[in-house]
């Protein structure tokens, strides 16, 4: 009989360190939910295995139900911030114009503003404003790429418009009064829009406004 060969000390250390490293990945929260249900991201810079290489060898890559989530962590928070900024910039060209007219003394019925804003937030924008001008013209004043990024988010325009109007003071019995009129402010329209979206994002995530969300 040949005696069974025992793993060498160095071999045991490699196996032990590999298991310890993998356990550390699990317990340290490197695997984390990314905010989209049922998907997981992992830090590809963690050293896994005994070869001193960063990340995992292709054969060792963990199968992920959503392959698009297997990427170096760009910070979902940064992506979300960029999306929120795109929404603020896109909606802002409509809202800043409207709030400026309101401050100048124009009377703005909430239902009229809601209808036009909802259409503007629901691309493709083919409707006309109250003066018969295409609402889409407002998009021409946006910085390059903003309209495209907003369109790609596939937001429910009516839902977002409703949330925006709830942030603007009005005259009327209630928010659903057909004779409800928006009230002007002495504050700069751009600052009003900043405050509107800061309030919305503090209460509701962007995903809540996506179609089917």
Show the helix and strand layout:
Elements: H1 9-27, E1 32-33, E2 40-41, H2 76-103, H3 110-120, H4 146-152, H5 157-165, E3 170-171, E4 181-182, H6 189-203
Antiparallel strand pairs: 1-2, 3-4
Q: Could you name the key traits of this structure?
A:
two-stranded antiparallel ribbon, about 210 residues, mainly alpha
Would you mind describing this structure in some detail?
This protein is mainly alpha-helical and 213 residues long. The chain has helices at 9-27, 76-103, 110-120, 146-152, 157-165, 189-203; strands spanning 32-33, 40-41, 170-171, 181-182. The chain has a two-stranded antiparallel ribbon. A hairpin with a 6-residue loop joins strand 1 and strand 2 (40-41). The protein is globular, with a radius of gyration of 26 Å.
